[in-house]
Design brief:
Order of helices and strands: EHHEEEEEEEEEEEEEEEEEEEHEEEH
Number of strands: 23
Largest sheet: 10 strands, parallel
Number of domains: 1
Strand content: 35-45%
Structural class: alpha/beta
Number of helices: 4
Distance between the termini: 36 Å
Helix content: 10-25%
Radius of gyration: 18 Å
Shape: elongated
């Protein structure tokens, strides 16, 4: 397993580093770095392509200058209200949980589940394409500059947008599935499969249960 050199940067050094790279989302990334200037924690930079078993992003800002390959789970917002992950390259992992802000300048390839939920406060921004078996948007913004290829998609609030517009959801919690079944005329052109009970609470999508399901290795989210 290849782990690139890891350095600790100041906010000023990190901003200068990102500016010199001139990546997609550069101005937005710099704005986020400035917002984290006075936040407790370090700015950790991996220089070069990096391979990790898992990646948990908490109080320390994490920047990867290269491609990032994670064998298991990438999760942000760990034990903090806000966090920041920046990857100047492509990302590949098994599962992906984002509760805060993430920028990926290249492609994002997730073998299983992408979950995003920040009460609509934060966004995942991808400069290339995104692929995943399942995507659950539980109140998060997704901006994909390329094409998003997803087999199962749940929309809660923010929606998932790629270069072709807003993606059409086809995964429903029990409440939505009941309404869809009873009032199909209200959903012209839509077709849904129902979520498993393991990721719902009283008929609606539930964040803590979904995180637990993913972290325990769950894969199939539909009945």
């Amino acid at each position: 397993m290849k782990e690139a050199m890891m350095k600790a940067f100041t906010a000023s050094e990190a901003i200068a580093w990102v500016t010199s790279k001139a990546p997609v989302f550069r101005d937005e990334i710099i704005k986020e770095l400035k917002a984290f200037h006075d936040v407790a924690g370090k700015i950790i930079v991996y220089t070069g392509d990096t391979e990790l078993t898992d990646l948990n992003v908490g109080k320390d800002v994490v920047i990867v200058d290269g491609d990032l390959a994670v064998a298991g789970l990438i999760q942000d917002g760990v034990k903090v209200d806000t966090s920041l992950l920046i990857v100047l390259g492509n990302v590949a992992c098994q599962n992906f949980i984002t509760l805060s802000s993430i920028f990926i300048t290249g492609h994002l390839n997730v073998n299983n589940i992408v979950l995003g939920d920040s009460l609509g406060d934060c966004a995942l921004k991808v400069g290339g394409d995104l692929s995943a078996k399942t995507m659950i948007e539980g109140g998060h913004w997704f901006e994909i500059a390329g094409r998003a290829t997803v087999e199962y998609l749940f929309h809660s609030h923010g929606g998932v947008r790629d270069k072709n517009g807003i993606l059409k959801p086809n995964l429903a919690d029990s409440d939505l599935m009941e309404d869809f079944t009873e009032n199909p005329a209200s959903y012209p052109g839509f077709s849904y499969v129902e979520m498993i009970d393991d990721i719902q609470e009283e008929g609606t999508y539930d964040l803590p249960k979904t995180i637990k399901f993913i972290r325990q290795g769950g894969e199939i989210v539909y009945k």
